[in-house]
Structures are given as structure tokens and as C-alpha cells.
Specification:
mainly alpha
Length: 292
């Protein structure tokens, strides 16, 4: 029971950290490419985690766990995160976070099929209610939102959710029996290596990293990465170690409860009644999935 409580609190803490970090990374969006943003945050995150592990020590990791976590990192932290940042630039943090609620639905399905988890009828009902909430939010966009940005943004968000769902399933398998911080480090090492290889092969590495020569951007990415690594990624691994993958993902995806007030407070964006209603409906579905 104690472990489940720790896992649930960790998942909620991860959601809050991601909500705040998405606002910070949005400020970088117009200046830094998604691939450059992802590679730089992974590299800085590896540095942070290595320093932390120097203090707490390392434990042995099996080759199977190393490989499974590595594939999880490439799929979720490299490809999935690049798609996430691209969607964030197109859609903005509020819509991106709300649209991201489809990830728990995908994860529940994968957990049932691959991990043999058995969600209750309430969990299935919650999946449909979550989709209904998304429909409320997406039913009508403001006229100021260009359609040419909405369509690719939604597509990127859906692909990011799919990559993330598969990545979570693999991470759940890999994190069993090893510390959450080491699991997170392995995932980031593989993700950074994949992005570095992509940048070198495509010749885009120099342009990806060029914007970080500006001190303002460098300071911002160092701070945002700290929030993401220890608030977002590490806490999500703690959650996966202590609760079902489906439940951990559902709680990790409660960012809208944090993002709506944060965007109103920090970005001075107006939160409409429709957005609030849609988010509440979607979260009621998320709650049902969690209660299982």
C-alpha cells in the first residue's frame, strides 16, 4: 500500500513537472528545432543524473534490462519527444497537454495485450469518457488558430502518444529490479546516441545546436532540463516501479489540471469554459481508469 501511494504521488509530481516544463520549452520553440531541443536536454540530463548517481552509487544492471530500457529510450525519448515538441510548437501547451490524454488509453490497451494487466469495467469506461472530453476540447478551435498548423500538430501529437505508450510498456518491463534513476539514465543515453547519429548522418547537428550559443537560451534549457529530468522522467520511473503501467500513465497524463492555470498565470492566456469543461470531463475518465 505504501509503495502504491509513493507511485501515485510520484506520477502526479511528474505530471506537474511536465506541465511547467512544457511552458519553459515553448519559449524555446521558435528558436530551437525539436531534434536539437531533445538532444540538448538528453545530454544535459545525462550529466545531471551522472552527478546524482555519484552520490548514491550504482547497482548492477542485466543486459536484458539495458537493452529493453534502451529501446524504450529511443522510441519514447528520442522519436516520441521530437514529435511532442513539434506538436507543442504547432498547438501550444494547453491543447497539446489535453490531446496527450489519449496516451493513457493507448497504454491501457497495450498493458492488457502485452503485460496481461486486467483493467476493470470502470477503466474501460474511463477510456471512452477521456475521448469524449478530448472531443469537447477539439470540437471548435479559435479562428486565430491556422488550420495548416492544427492538422500536422494533431498528427504529431497522436504519433507522439503512440511512441510514448509503447515506450512506457518497455520501461515498465526494464525498470523491474533496478533503481529508477539508473533506468532513466539508460533510456537517456540510448536516446541521445540515436539523436546524435541522426544529426551526424543527416548533417543537421550543427544547426540543431547553434541556437544554444545564446546565453539566454542555454540558461533556459539547463533549467527546463533539470525540471524535466528529476521532476518528469525520474518520478515517472518511480511511478512505474510501484504501480501498474496503466495507472502510472493515467496519473502522468494529468498535466491539463496543472497546465490550464499555469498558462493563465504565466502566459496570460485566457482559459475558456469549453477548455475547462473538456479537461474536467477528460480527467473524470482518467480518474476512472486509475480507480480500476
Amino acid at each position: 500500500m505504501v509503495n502504491e501511494t509513493i507511485g501515485c504521488l510520484a506520477a502526479l509530481g511528474s505530471a506537474a513537472a511536465w506541465a511547467y516544463a512544457s511552458i519553459l520549452f515553448r519559449e524555446l520553440g521558435s528558436d530551437v528545432s525539436p531534434a536539437g531541443m531533445t538532444l540538448s536536454s538528453s545530454a544535459i540530463g545525462i550529466l545531471y543524473m551522472c552527478l546524482a548517481l555519484l552520490a548514491v552509487g550504482l547497482e548492477p544492471v542485466s543486459s536484458r534490462a539495458f537493452f529493453v530500457l534502451g529501446v524504450s529510450g529511443v522510441l519514447g525519448l528520442a522519436l516520441g519527444t521530437v514529435l511532442f515538441f513539434r506538436a507543442l510548437i504547432y498547438l501550444g501547451p494547453k491543447l497539446m497537454m489535453i490531446l496527450g490524454l489519449i496516451c493513457p488509453v493507448l497504454t491501457v490497451g497495450l498493458a492488457v495485450g502485452l503485460l496481461k494487466e486486467r483493467p476493470s469495467a470502470a477503466a474501460w469506461a474511463g477510456s471512452f469518457i477521456t475521448l469524449a472530453g478530448l472531443a469537447v476540447v477539439l470540437w471548435k478551435r479559435p479562428d486565430s488558430e491556422p488550420r495548416e498548423k492544427l492538422v500536422p500538430g494533431v498528427l504529431c501529437a497522436l504519433l507522439a502518444a503512440l511512441c510514448t505508450a509503447f515506450s512506457i510498456i518497455l520501461a515498465k518491463v526494464g525498470v523491474e529490479g533496478i533503481p529508477a534513476l539508473e533506468a532513466s539514465l539508460i533510456r537517456h543515453i540510448w536516446a541521445a546516441a540515436a539523436l546524435l547519429a541522426w544529426g551526424l548522418a543527416g548533417g543537421g547537428l550543427k544547426s540543431w545546436l547553434a541556437p544554444f550559443h545564446e546565453k539566454r537560451l542555454a540558461k533556459l534549457v539547463f533549467f527546463a532540463t533539470f525540471v524535466v529530468i528529476f521532476g518528469g522522467f525520474w518520478l515517472s520511473m518511480v511511478a512505474l516501479k510501484n504501480v501498474y503501467a496503466s495507472a502510472a500513465t493515467v496519473l502522468n497524463m494529468t498535466e491539463p489540471l496543472f497546465i490550464l492555470p499555469l498558462t493563465a498565470l504565466l502566459l496570460k492566456e485566457k482559459v475558456s469554459a469549453r477548455e475547462i469543461t473538456g479537461a474536467l470531463v477528460a480527467f473524470s475518465g482518467v480518474a476512472l481508469i486509475f480507480l480500476r
